[in-house]
Amino acid sequence: MVKIQDKVQIIPLGGLGEIGKNMTVFRYEDDIILVDAGLMFPEDDMLGIDLVIPDITYLLENKDKLKGIFLTHGHEDHIGALPYVLKQIDVPVYGTALTLGILEGRLKENGVSSENLTVIKPGEKVKAGAFKLGFIRVNHSIPDAVAIAITTPIGIIIHTGDFKFDQTPVDGQVTQFNKFAEYGDKGVLALLADSTNAERPGFTPSEKVVGQTFDDEFRYARGRIIVATFSSNVHRIQQVIDSAVRYKRKVAVIGRSMVNVVNISKELGYLNIPEGVLIDIDETNNYTADQMVIITTGSQGEPMSALTRMAMSDHRKVDIIPGDTVIISATPIPGNEKLVSRTIDHLYKLGADVVYEKSNGVHVSGHASQEEIKLMHNLVRPKYFIPVHGEYRHLIKHAGLARDLGMPKENIVIAENGNVIELTRNSIAITGKITSGKVLVDGLGVGDVGNIVLRDRRQLSQDGIMIVVVTMDRENCQVVSGPDIVSRGFVYVREAEDLMEEARDKVQFALDKCENEGVSEWPAIKSTVRESLGRFLYEKTGRRPMILPIIMEI
User: Fold this and answer.
1) Taking the model in full, what pTM does it have?
2) What percentage of the chain carries pLDDT values higher than 90?
3) Marked catalytic residue, from 31, 77, 144, 194
């Protein structure tokens, strides 16, 4: 029997106040489920970092209570952290066929077993401890996306995942409006909904708009066509293939992630490619330019991506030639604008015709705009609401839309990562905070680079480093040889010999001072050298290089 004080805890570990690393915990007594486990890509000041994943300390502390991980769709910001999570926690993972197909490839790359993956379909139900989960088909920029209805002992909670309402989806699979309405009729206790486009008025255009643009560009293109898009946007890839078939062109695919997704989607039946249309990139020389379409990665100007390497004339298989039409079918993610602009400039210099502006209809969002968000709220009619998936301003805007629809302000919670939101049948409130944050992945290291290392990297990148090497006699603390100074990224030594000589004198003076004052501890000597040299260099150059004194003893 349900007790009157029963509560469900909702704990976002990522995805709030940011775009990426979406991960949300739902807990009832000793039963926990997790919705999504995503990553985000590093910000500009995270020098050398490859990926950012959520801090899963809470999950590790409660791993015996975790009953399952449930995935809304196959984008990296929702599944990308799973290889790191599953290395530490052995738990069932549920998702649709394409989501798990993409995930399986990621797990294989990281040497993680995929035997715990279970395919679910929209309409199916799964029991996990005290929770019963139902899956509702939604439209997004990747097929097989679902919202999740979580039936708990105190009521129904709906997590929309990423969604939009596309009335004319490429695959004909329309959002299951009726399912949302059915749950709304039963009574929904709380809604967690995508806030990404909460600032955009109106409706998000249908994906088919892009297909029409492709048709127009293919009709007038006289040379080779190169289309850059996100590898996960299977509907977009399908529309490129459809236009290629219509205009009797062959299609080649470049970019590791693009090749992987195309192969997986083809195997699982999410891509319809007529026999003989898809060819290997090495076969393109057998066809004239006006018979070819190349689908590639690099729509974000990533330095190592295929399109960027083509633009820099650095690709082993493809050279941009005058007459090529390059279609960049994506909008730059905030922070990537300069990279994309640079790529476009280089493509123009090589003689290509570049189609890239959103106004040209080469890209539509996969997220709901304001009118679709309102429709979701009106279908579900929740008692309580938590905006998720967005930067802080998106969450605020989404909360405003909910209030416009008549929801009382006190029934809306704008949370941060790590907040413990307690939900009962008659109340919602933030009652605590658990460990959360960012774990940085650098090469094979997970979490071994923190704020101090990043601070050092920033200092090295800004002012360089000076290494001072001194050999000293351990017994009497006298200098045997040195000091020698090595500079990297600070000044060009051959053109600053006077400065280096003065710096050496300053170090010698600091060492003499230590000897005269009887300072014999290595840390104290290093600190004196660092302070004396740092002060001198700042007076002379206005820069603060990292100073690394090294004492070798004999």
Assistant:
1) 0.84
2) 64
3) 194
